[in-house]
Amino acid sequence: MMQGPDIGEVVLHHTADAYAIGIEPFFEWHWERWPDIHIGSLVINLTPTKHVFFLVLAAALVFFTMRLTGRALAKQKAGSRAPRGLANLMEAFVLFVRNDVAIANIGANGARFAPLVIALFFFILYANLLGLLPHGSTATGNLAVTGALALLVFGVVEISGIMTLGFKGYLRTIFPKIPGMTGVGATMMTLAMGPIEILGKLVKPFALAVRLFGNMTAGHFVVLSLFGIIFLFGNLGIWSWAIGITTMLLVVGIMLLELFVAFLQAYVFALLTAVFIGLMQHEH
Amino acid sequence: MGISSFALLLRVAEEAAEGPASPFEVNFGLFFWTWLVFLILLWVLAKFALPAIVKTTEERERTIRGQLDDAERLHAEAKTAHADAQQAAADARASAQTLLADARAASEKERTAAVEKLRQEQDAMLDRARRDIVDEKERAVAALRREAVDLALAAAGKLIEQRLDADADRKLVSEYLEQLEVTR
Predict the structure, then answer these.
(1) What does the DSSP assignment read for B106-130?
(2) HSE value, Cβ hemisphere, 13 Å, CA-based, for B60
(3) Which ipTM score applies to this complex?
(4) What are the 10-residue block averages of pLDDT along chain B, 184 residues in total?
(5) Distance between CA atoms of residues B131 and B41, nearest Å
(6) Do B38 and A152 touch (CB under 8 A)?
(7) Which of B31, B41, B55 shows the shortest C-beta gap to A63?
(8) DSSP code of A142?
(9) Is the Cβ pair B32, A80 closer than 8 Å?
(10) How many degrees, rounded to 5, is the angle at CA A151 between CA A147 and CA A157?
(11) In 3D, which of B23, B28, B40 has the Cα closest to residue A147?
């Protein structure tokens, strides 16, 4: 068997973050890692990475798309007739996320949270799609990025809860009234529910973070592993063609699936954010 | 081959678990960057991009709602106009029917009157004719009677060869004839 590259190494190298960007093998730009910052036992390194670059790129692209859409709409006098072209597509996306994801799930306060949900949807979508481009990197396939976004959502959910329900009302979401029980039993039951409710609150952002990270990483692993098949079995004479073609077809299929997943996961993240905010708004 | 790919997966998993490039390794610095980038994006979107999109679509929604309202109003108006027109047509038809009936009644009356007048005229004509016939008959009877008297007188004159006094004789014969008429 031909000595191919270490496929595991390749897979991890391609999905991992780095202190470098570039279009291999033409050029690559490395930079130095900044010194670590120690906060208690936590070690934080603020050096921008490849994923930070792609996050900034995604954010810039989202902003420019939205800005162009807004301008195109104004230029087409879309206030009085239907918009055309890209503006129409983007407007449909924005309105869908605003009306059917944010407002439909949050309710009366939906319009206030709509920019957050829209920003989350497009930011995640663009970051997902950038990872599908050649030489691109999936920032949303990084647990720290998805974790940060999920933690942000968690903060928004809980703070919006305190602001809407008041501090006492918010405490009720941790120590709920048990219907049909009175006296000492009810108090004990309420106190016992506390840890479970807190765990419930924490599980939501954790699921958000892991779901997005898992979906984004897994697809790339599958694609890269399929390519690995070529290197593993590429020395079987005439059969190498068959293996190459089969692998290519499989990879195209997976890439199409990835394209769908990129949209789906952005939608799921935005939808669940809206649902969690909505649940908190309507808590009794 | 199955074993080798399994071994590969195992190795990937091992490296993922212990190697520096593990996908499960969390770089806390990225939290800062993600928040920074996302919050800036959220701010500029909310401030500079989304209001324009939402504004135009809301404006369009208003326009469309206005147009729908207009259409509804126009539809209602058209409906009313149609009902009015139908009512007018019905009224016209009814009045035409009345006029026709009136005309028919008037012509009937006219005809009846004409027939009646004709009948009266016929009756009058018949009466007059009848009267004329009676008169004529009476006149003929009188003439005949006069002629008979004259003839009788002439015959009597001839018979007695004597011309009698005309008026006295005439009276005599007339009395005789009336007597005859009475006895008959």
Answers:
(1) HHHHHHHHHHHHHHHHHHHHHHHHH
(2) 18
(3) 0.89
(4) 51 48 80 93 91 84 90 94 95 94 94 94 93 91 86 77 70 80 69
(5) 129
(6) yes
(7) B41
(8) S
(9) no
(10) 145
(11) B28
